Amino acid sequence: MRILVRGLLIKKNNIVMSNRTVQFESKALALSSPISIEVKPATTPRIHRLMMWLDSYEIPIVRKQTQLVRNPALKILAILFNHLGNGWVYPLWVGGLLIFEGSKAIPLVIVASVSLSLAHLLYPKIKSFIARPRPIDRYPDLCQLLKPLDLYSCPSGHCMSAAAISIPIMMVLPNLTIFVLLVWFLIGWARLATGHHYPSDLLIGGVMGSIVTWPITQLYFTG
Q1: Which DSSP helix (H) or strand (E) runs through 38?
Q2: Which CATH superfamily is domain 44-222 in?
Q3: Which of 12, 29, 41, 201 is most buried, judged by most C-beta within 10 A?
Q4: Within a 10 A sphere around the Cβ of 101, how many other Cβ atoms?
Q5: Where do the CATH 1.20.144.10 domains begin and end in the chain?
Q6: Contact 63, 142 (CB under 8 A)
Q7: How far is 107 from 110, CA to CA, in rounded Å?
Q8: How many angstroms separate the CA atoms of 162 and 151, rounded?
């Protein structure tokens, strides 16, 4: 059975999503024609319209980045930094700081961990409220290198986490700023190149992480 659900903004397991049509495949029953079911958008109409408007301007940027990963080297780079942004980069950061800075890095690790934890308390609720479909879900012609970790696109949890970790490091160890910004940029680019996010998702995620981590870092280190 194939069910076409128009307007549904979800993707899970064997459900293929777009803002217009969702196809659900089932071998349990066989019908001669698809069933169409009209449903309301997954978020408020005003936010839904705003996201659709942004999508129309941002999808050319996403499409161009996804085309870049046809290059084998860039494909490997995108996959690598996606996996690092999933969380693997942060133990590496902690290990490197402890090795090179010793006990001086412990307060920095504490601040970054607290900031990251607080940001992730807010993040799921905001993401579910906005309920913006990912580019690869709205535009199935985009190359899908990796499966996304969750349903929605905005804000980017990867960029939010990168901001929550990177800002304390740059404030306390400014000599690492260029390197930290490079890693942050590559994580964000990788999210575009895999079609998981729009540019505004990255921006909003970065702003969220910054808003959480900046006052905590200032309070801890400057009192």
Answers
A1: strand 35-38
A2: Phosphatidic acid phosphatase type 2/haloperoxidase (1.20.144.10)
A3: 201
A4: 15
A5: 44-222
A6: yes
A7: 5
A8: 20
